[in-house]
Design goal:
single chain; about 250 residues; alpha/beta; 2 domains; eight-stranded mixed sheet; three-stranded mixed sheet; globular
Length: about 250
């Protein structure tokens, strides 16, 4: 792992998903095999494999203080092309510092992570009106998780963290994305721990090698994604969990 401390010119950027996004890190230690954020290498100039580098924007809090003075208040995504709670956050605490600044200025955030480290910051998140914290949970089967994202926290730990956040009074959600085998079991495990669920399919761009190596071609096809999404939607309706599918099932 090549870790480099850098200084950014700004950190609060426009986003197509939420009004704004903050990425305190460039690169991600979780190194998920299907991650769309791999495209960032074209802009950062890294030759290392995705997951082998992280640039730490050590002045991110200072940049944010300057940035929010120039912007209209709105929701900030934490984060778009990195996990804001990847292991380095325990040392650098940049995500925590940025959330503190947002809280002080009354800005809401949409937090998306795979790491239970987010529970460390419940004291700040609870002060941020309009803020929610969510986990990417692509499957209920941890052996499947190990194929696609072996360096990320276990499914059990993610669901436990969602429960802790929810019981603390924080609005929570789960991104069942990308849909992987075993995802159909998630609604029952998430019931009472999330306020809503979002479902999306796998992006094939970075998964082809995994298909070949693990004989997944028969499972991860359009028919699988459609059937899994319909099953999850039906179970969510039965469990009274608001659920939104962001692709069109067959």
């Amino acid at each position: 792992m090549i870790i480099k401390e850098i200084r950014a010119k700004s950190v609060l950027s426009a986003s197509k998903i939420y009004p704004y996004v903050i990425n305190p890190y460039a690169g991600c230690q979780h190194a998920c095999s299907y991650c769309y954020a791999r495209f960032m290498k074209k802009f950062t100039g890294h030759r290392e494999a995705w997951g082998d580098f992280v640039d730490v924007k050590i002045n991110a809090p200072d940049c944010l203080r300057a940035d929010i003075r120039k912007k209209e208040k709105d929701t900030v995504w934490m984060s778009g092309v990195c996990d804001p709670y990847q292991p380095l956050e325990e040392k650098y605490r940049l995500t925590r510092a940025c959330l503190e600044i947002l809280a002080e200025n009354g800005w809401p955030a949409a937090i998306q992570t795979r790491s239970p480290l987010v529970t460390r910051d419940m004291d700040i998140i609870n002060r941020m009106a309009g803020t929610e914290a969510g986990f990417s949970v692509p499957t209920a089967d941890d052996s499947v998780r190990m194929i696609f994202e072996p360096l990320a926290p276990s499914i059990e730990r993610r669901i436990s963290a969602l429960d802790e956040l929810h019981r603390c009074g924080i609005r929570t959600y789960a991104m069942i994305a990308p849909l992987l085998p075993g995802a159909e079991e998630l609604p029952a495990l998430l019931a009472g721990k999330v306020d809503h669920i979002i479902v999306d399919r796998l992006n094939y761009n970075y998964a082809d090698a995994l298909f070949r190596e693990n004989n997944l071609g028969d499972f991860l096809k359009d028919a699988f994604f459609s059937a899994a999404a319909r099953s999850i939607a039906a179970d969510c309706a039965r469990l009274k969990i608001p659920c939104r599918t962001v692709f069109n099932p067959l």
